[in-house]
Design a protein that fits this description.
Nucleotide-diphossugar_trans, 237 residues, alpha/beta, transmembrane, Glycosyltransferase 2-like domain-containing protein
Length: 237
């Protein structure tokens, strides 16, 4: 396999999770150790995130913009790999994720895609939040089979669709998934879901989304800055 992966991770005060995220990438990289670059974008960190990532062989950049689309695009501009992967700092990939991604892309049948999602533990808050998300995003998650949390595609296709939409302060991930799938359909290619990422219970497991349903509904359109600040950028880690 001659592919090189560029894995982009925006991180805002992620000292509790970034080590596990990076560790999962290292395990998934065992079949291609010299073909993976990890790009961490430190965003307004005031905890030990920077200290932790400096202990690992990753490329570190700082960017203070409160815009996840801009942070991911910034990371993509630093990338030297032909495959772009983005993953949230509080998520970790399965051991076979990179191999699965490379195999699918190299068939020529896939434009890219996302990943199935598991939670680090299941409790009542997680179950109710999943139900809430399922109602709000039924069309995207169940009819279109889109996912969030991790994305993968060739860099040339990432660039072709313009990366993430920086005009969106939130919901940029679903917008990217929709455009990537639509672009793939024009090329006669599928949007795939690899197995799998595990994500933290940080927001799903502490009733945060349930207690902020009105705010959560506002972030769906991607334009409400106040709602996005509360749900994402100034979330109390």
């Amino acid at each position: 396999m001659n592919n090189k992966f560029s894995i982009i991770i925006p991180a805002h005060n992620e000292e509790k999770y970034i080590g596990k995220c990076l560790g999962s990438i290292k395990k998934a990289s065992q079949f291609c150790q010299n073909q993976v670059e990890i790009i961490v974008i430190l965003n307004r960190c005031h905890d030990r995130t920077e200290e932790i990532v400096k202990k690992i062989n990753v490329k570190i950049f700082k960017n203070d913009r409160q815009n996840l689309a801009a942070l991911r695009n910034f990371g993509a501009k630093q990338a030297t790999g032909d495959i772009i992967i983005t993953i949230d700092a509080d998520s970790w990939m399965s051991q076979n994720a990179l191999l699965d991604i490379a195999n699918r892309l190299n068939t020529g049948k896939y434009i890219g895609g996302g990943a199935q999602i598991k939670f680090e533990k299941i409790n009542l808050s997680v179950i109710l939040t999943i139900i809430l998300y399922s109602i709000i995003l039924f069309r995207d998650f169940y009819l279109k089979r889109l996912t969030v949390g991790l994305f993968w595609c060739f860099k040339k296709d990432f660039d072709k669709i313009g990366g993430f939409n920086e005009n969106l302060i939130s919901a940029e991930d679903l917008d990217f998934a929709r455009r990537l799938k639509r672009y793939g359909k024009k090329q006669g290619k599928r949007y795939g879901r690899v197995d799998y990422i595990t994500t933290s219970n940080r927001k799903f497991g502490d009733w945060y989304y349930i207690r902020n349903i009105k705010t959560l509904l506002k972030v769906k359109n991607g334009k409400d800055e106040e709602a996005a600040q509360k749900i994402y950028y100034n979330y109390p880690h």
